Amino acid sequence: MFGSLRLQRLPSAHPGIALAARAAAIFIALFVAGIAIAIAGMNPIELGGRVISASFGSAFGMEDLGVLVIPLILTGLAVAVGQQIGAWNIGAEGQFYAGAFAASAVGLFVPGPQWMILILMFIAGTVGGAVWILVPTLARAYANVNELITTLLLNFVATLLVYYVSTGPWRDRSGMANSATPPLSADVPYFWGIVHWGFPIAIGLAVVVALALSFSKWGYEVRLVGSNPSAAKYAGIPVRKHLITVMLLSGAIAGLAGMLEIAGTVHRLQGGISNNFGYLGIMVAVLARGSPLGVIFSGALMAFILNSGIILQTQGLTTSVVLAITGFILFLTAIGDELSYYRITREKA
Amino acid sequence: MDILTGLLTTAFLAGGVLALAALGEVLAERVGVVNLGVEGLMAMGAITGIATVTSVPSPMLGFLAALVVGALFGMLFASATVLLRANQVLCGLALTLMGTGLASTIGRNYSGMPAPVTFEPVQIPLLSQIPVLGPAFFSQNILVYLIYLVLPIFFSYLMFSTRHGLNMRAVGENPAAADAAGIPVNLMRFSYVTIGSALAAGAGAYLTLAFVPSWSDGVVAGRGWIAVALVIFAGYRPIMAALSGLLFGLITALGFIGQARGWPVAPAFLSMLPYLGTVAFIIVPVLAWQKMRRAMAAPAALAVPYFRDMR
User: Does B263 map to a domain?
Assistant: First the structure.
């Protein structure tokens, strides 16, 4: 049918093609979104121009992007870390809320100097996130229960918990609005404009994790478990121990994202503090092909897409459009990933 | 109505959503495809149902429209996962994000509006006179009978008592052997993923046309994921899937009764029950029923794409 050409599936994907497939996926998804906007009776090119000038045309726009990049890098890193050992942490959304919840408890009720409160909030946030993934982790490690569903279901529990405390016992009783807690007693200082110190922390953490995975004995063993668990076990690597630490680390990073979001950006605990950061983190990790360093770039890209959605809200669109477009990009990426395993070869006569 | 009847009535009604979606997922997983897009499919079905009955006041038409939309999305998913053999987990998550986002976007104009027409309860003659079960089960809307009786019995018979069902399970257990025996693996997978997706979207329409019945953002609230989990709990069996749907309906009903009777527990905690219950129900059986493990095991080729050329 194709003459002497035939399609061959290779044992490993070509990274360049996989990357090109990602670029193509984003391009196609945005193109389709543009067509949908045009069908809805708006001018996609004009809207696109408005988004770009609002994002990059002023310091304020860049600062907005910077604020969104922080949680997206961290939730993306959380998912990517799990992927390194072959675990799907789809519960970053819940760990984000759990971290925000635990950090708020410190920020609301513990007296003391700012720096001490911040350190305690940091600890509480990471521990909160790790605690939230503890049951799925142990279930996976000891009973081989699929962590995908258990981590995801706990998202709903965490969301309900934060909703309950912020409209119930921890509610701000001084003001008119009664769906949030009072302001927290400590704030993460600003780094640049309205971008707080979470920005360098997130990037630094991604770099540290990347270095640890690439150059330490621990990282080598973790990657080995991720690529071939039975070979790793045969080689005497403590598979279960690594699985538990990596999954807890993943939860802690997502919890840190929640802590930084309330202590740096929102300054009080309320329902809906996450703009689907946990779910978008899956996308960030997949776009980065699970690479902790790649997460910095795909996180920035995702921040731009999310920010575009927020800007377009004034044009009668909702941020749920972003979720739909993200899903579409993910869908095309999955297809592109599979196609990047193929090579067209010429049959020798 | 006494408390037991009330509890069971709500349980049957609430469990129908999960039972129908879980049934659809059983079909897909039995042929070896894990579809994690159920949550998104339900959202699309839910908004399709509401949007349809707003223009044409027929709940049945709304339900059928949801089935069609679900089948279309199912074909999209199956094209990627079965024909192109893309990663099923990624495509499923993508479908969930797409469906949820798209449904919220479309649903903005329908938010908070009660369904203009809904599925009305039908009294089955004689049977509805049975104490407790009569008012609780035989006085429900017509979909309830479809979900708890017709579909599970039909699919159970199909799966375990026909040649076609044997072929179907062979595709999920060992696609290479099935292919060698002349069973069309891809066609089988494509068809059942499509049917399963249609049922998931139907469950969404059931939610907005029979159970809630209105659309609001986030109305699906993780029920799709609970349905996926129930399939594991139900050991990939249609009748067990319907029964576990009912069990979770009972948990939901307990929450409702607790709220109505003013139990000293915050409603938010009662709302957590189904999620926590699901986590418990997929962990506990693994620990408790070691002997049942083989009988309840997942199809061997679940989530594994089939490459004929790499047999």
Answer: yes
- Which residue is closest to B275 within chain A, CA to CA? A153
How many Cβ atoms sit within 10 Å of the Cβ of residue B110? Answer: 19
Chain A residue numbers with beta carbons less than 8 Å from the beta carbon of B270 are none
Task: Say how many domains are in chain A.
Answer: 1
pLDDT digits (tens, 9 = 90+) for B88-119: 999 999 999 999 999 998 998 888 888 888 89
Q: Tell whether B252 lies on the interface with A, counting CB pairs under 8 A.
A: no
Read off the CATH number of the domain in which B230 is found. 1.10.3470
Computed over its alpha carbons, how large is the radius of gyration of chain B? Answer: 19
Q: How many domains does chain B contain in total? A: 1
Tens of pLDDT along B60-70? 999 999 999 99
**Helices assigned H by DSSP within A40-146:** 44-56, 59-84, 92-109, 114-132, 134-143
Query: Using an 8 Å Cβ cutoff, are A253 and A48 in contact?
Result: no
ipTM score above 0.90: yes
Smallest CA–CA separation between B159 and chain A, in Å?
25
Q: In DSSP terms, which residues pair with A270 in a beta bridge?
A: A180
Q: In 3D, which of B272, B160, B223, B180 has the Cα closest to residue B16?
A: B223
Q: Do A155 and B85 touch (CB under 8 A)?
A: no
Largest interatomic CA distance in chain A: 84
SS3 for A34? helix
DSSP state of A88: -
Structure tokens, A241: 């121990």
Given A152, A327, A338, which is nearest B225 (Cβ)?
A152
> Taking the model in full, what pTM does it have?
0.92
